[in-house]
Every structure is written in C-alpha cells, then in structure tokens.
C-alpha cells in the first residue's frame, strides 16, 4: 500500500479555505470583496465561474484510479460518486496513512 501525501494543490486549497472569507467577516461586513460575478441576472445565459476559494483539482492518482477500477469491476456504486463529492480524491487517494475510504451503496 502506497502512502498518500498531500500535494501542493491540496495544501493551497486548504489554505484558501482557511484564509477565505469567514462567517464572522461576512456578518460584520468586513470580508474582502470578490470582484467576480456570484449571481446571474435575469435573462443572462453565461456560465458563472467558481470563486477561487471553492475551486478543486480534478481527482487523480494511482490509488484513486485503482479504487475506481476495482469498483467498476465489482459493479458497485458509491455515495461519493453519485453526490459528485469534491473531496473524493482525498478519500480515495488513501489519506496520510494509506487508508482509502468509500461509502458503497
């Protein structure tokens, strides 16, 4: 079993979440203003982009691919996939101790 180590993308995402706008800043009105668009106006057809603190990398890696392949072979579905969980790469990647988790339906 290979151990999973956090990539710089994982660390920077964690940092973005920790350093992103907090609830108390929002309530106090002191959160840093996001210049991007967060809401579509009536009649607009353009696609909104996620703010930087919510963006995730596409899950990949040896452990992730192995688990996905094994689940397909066994014809099993997971809650993670059905819910399109953005953290699936962290769980299926094996964590810091090489233990992967998945919720089978």
UniProtKB/TrEMBL annotation:
Gene Ontology molecular-function annotations: 4 iron, 4 sulfur cluster binding; lipoate synthase activity
Cofactor(s) listed: [4Fe-4S] cluster
Keyword Flavoprotein belongs to the record: no
InterPro entries found in the cross-reference section: LIAS_N (IPR031691), Lipoyl_synth (IPR003698)
UniProt keyword terms in alphabetical order: 4Fe-4S, Iron, Iron-sulfur, Metal-binding
Domain Lipoyl synthase N-terminal: 6-85
Pfam assignment, any one: LIAS_N
Compartments, record wording: Mitochondrion
Gene Ontology cellular component list: mitochondrion
The keyword Iron is annotated on this UniProt entry: yes
Descriptive protein name: Lipoyl synthase N-terminal domain-containing protein
Organism: Bracon brevicornis
């Amino acid at each position: 079993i290979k151990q999973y180590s956090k990539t710089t993308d994982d660390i920077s995402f964690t940092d973005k979440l920790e350093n992103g706008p907090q609830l108390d800043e929002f309530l106090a009105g002191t959160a840093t203003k996001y210049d991007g668009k967060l809401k579509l106006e009536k009649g607009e057809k353009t696609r909104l982009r996620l703010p930087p603190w919510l963006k995730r990398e596409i899950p990949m890696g040896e452990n992730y691919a192995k688990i996905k392949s094994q689940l397909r072979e066994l014809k099993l579905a997971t809650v993670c996939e059905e819910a399109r969980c953005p953290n699936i790469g962290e769980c299926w990647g094996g964590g810091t101790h090489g233990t992967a988790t998945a919720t089978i339906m």
